[in-house]
Write a structure and sequence with these properties.
Elements (H helix, E strand, L loop, with lengths): L7 H6 L4 H12 L3 H20 L4 E3 L3 E8 L2 E4 L6 E4 L2 E8 L1 H7 L1
Antiparallel strand pairs: 1-2, 2-5, 3-4
Helix pairs in contact: 2-3
């Protein structure tokens, strides 16, 4: 599914950002940089909103974003050694697909 990315800018930097994604979309499809930036932001906003609401975002061949609930627990203050209560929280989680894991190997 994934083809090897041959563009020199990816290989040189090895860092993909929203800006580099938008720039590549604009160049590849002839979009304006503004339109490409809006498209990239839209995708990430949709993923974040789904996870925020307790749902998940599954991207075939890449992975699944979801939300995990962490229970309240007791911790220790490292400075005083005093026991403190840590509130229950929610956190984002990402599970890579087999395809993506195999690509990285």
């Amino acid at each position: 599914m994934y083809r090897k990315i041959k563009e020199a800018n990816y290989m040189a930097t090895k860092v993909v950002t929203k800006k580099t994604l938008a720039d590549e979309l604009a160049a590849k499809y002839g979009w304006t940089k503004k339109d490409a930036n809006e498209a990239v932001n839209y995708v990430f906003d949709q993923i974040a909103e789904a996870v925020k609401k307790g749902g998940e975002a599954s991207i075939n061949g890449f992975g699944k974003f979801s939300q995990v609930k962490k229970k309240a627990r007791t911790g220790l203050n490292p400075a005083t050694g005093e026991k403190i209560k840590i509130k229950a929280t929610k956190a984002p989680k990402f599970k890579a697909s087999k395809t993506f894991k195999d690509l990285v190997k």
